[in-house]
Amino acid sequence: MSMTTPKQEAHETDRRARLVDAERRAVALFDAIEVAGLIIAGRNERDVERDIYDLAKARFGVEKHWHKRIVRTGPNTLLTAGDNPPVRTIAEDDTVYVDLGPVFDEWEGDVGRTYLMGDDPTKARLIADLERIFEIGQAHFHATPDITGAALYDFVCRQAEAAGWRFGGSIAGHVVSEFPHARLPGDKELNRISPRNPLPMREPDGLGQVRHWILEVHLVDPARTFGGFYERLL
User: Fold this and answer.
1) What is the mean pLDDT of residues 207-232?
2) Phi-psi bin for 178: left (phi > 0), alpha (psi -120 to 50), beta?
3) How far apart are CA 178 and CA 107, in angstroms?
4) Number of structural domains found in the chain
5) What are the backbone angles phi and psi of residue 89, rounded to the nearest 5°?
6) 1-36: pLDDT as tens digits
7) pTM, whole model, 2 decimals?
8) pLDDT over 90 for what percent of the chain?
9) What phi, psi does 230 have (nearest 5°)?
């Protein structure tokens, strides 16, 4: 059985603290976006993205984003980060999700939230279920030491179905680390919460370090007319 040294333990404690701090700063960026009133009906996705970029740079000193800033509204909320749909304008009754990936001092933040432009009760329920299912998935991860990426993906999908939704993502999260985590050696699937990851999530990464995970919850309604997205550190 391998044992960690005090130096290794200190290194991992520092890594975790830096990732938690990156998330804290990303949440503060979200709060600033809300105060500035950037997400309102009548604005298009690209203009909101541009304003978020400017706010992040001016108020938080963010020069880099480890993934593209994503604002999705209406039917575009059914789609994932890898899609590139036509730009839409936010309508009065839309859900709007925002996925941010700012880099703070070379550490990756990754947070996502969903907003409701109107007062539709079904859409409001979906948004409430995003955080609720995240918390259920987070608790299950911490209660299951040997859980694999595939098993956690399946668990979150079943939670979505039990709540009356479909799970909209081909993955349910990924690692974050020192920027850029995409360059970690080894099979990229092992750094994702997906059906293609049979590895226990607590196995070390390609550099022998602890994997720190983002859990993503992407819900869509059964008729596939709207969706929502939420993510944070596990």
Assistant:
1) 96
2) beta
3) 5
4) 1
5) -95, 135
6) 456 788 888 989 999 999 999 999 999 999 999 999
7) 0.94
8) 85
9) -150, 140
Q: Which two tokens stand for residue 220?
A: 């869509």
Separation of alpha carbons 112 and 174, rounded Å = 13
- The total number of residues written for the chain in this structure: 234
**What domain range includes position 109?**
6-233
Each residue of 82-119: b (16+ CB within 10 Å) or e? eeeeeebebeeebbbbbbbbbbbeebbbbbbbbbbbee
What is the CATH number for 58? Answer: 3.90.230.10
Token output for 61: 């000193």
Q: Cα(171)–Cα(175) distance, rounded to whole angstroms?
A: 12
In a domain, 1, yes or no: no
As to burial, measured by CB atoms within 10 angstroms (0-12 exposed, 13-18 middle, 19+ buried), residue 45 is buried
Determine the Cα–Cα distance for residues 57 and 98; give it in Å rounded to an integer: 17
Question: Rounded distance, CA 108 to CA 67, Å?
Answer: 10
Output the six-digit token pair for 12. 């991992």
Instruction: State the chain's mean pLDDT as an integer.
Output: 94
Task: List pLDDT tens digits, range 68-114.
Answer: 778 999 999 999 988 999 999 999 999 999 999 999 999 999 999 99
Average pLDDT over residues 125-150: 98
For the chain, the straight-line distance linking the first and the last C-alpha, in angstroms and rounded, comes to 26
Residue 59 domain-assigned? yes
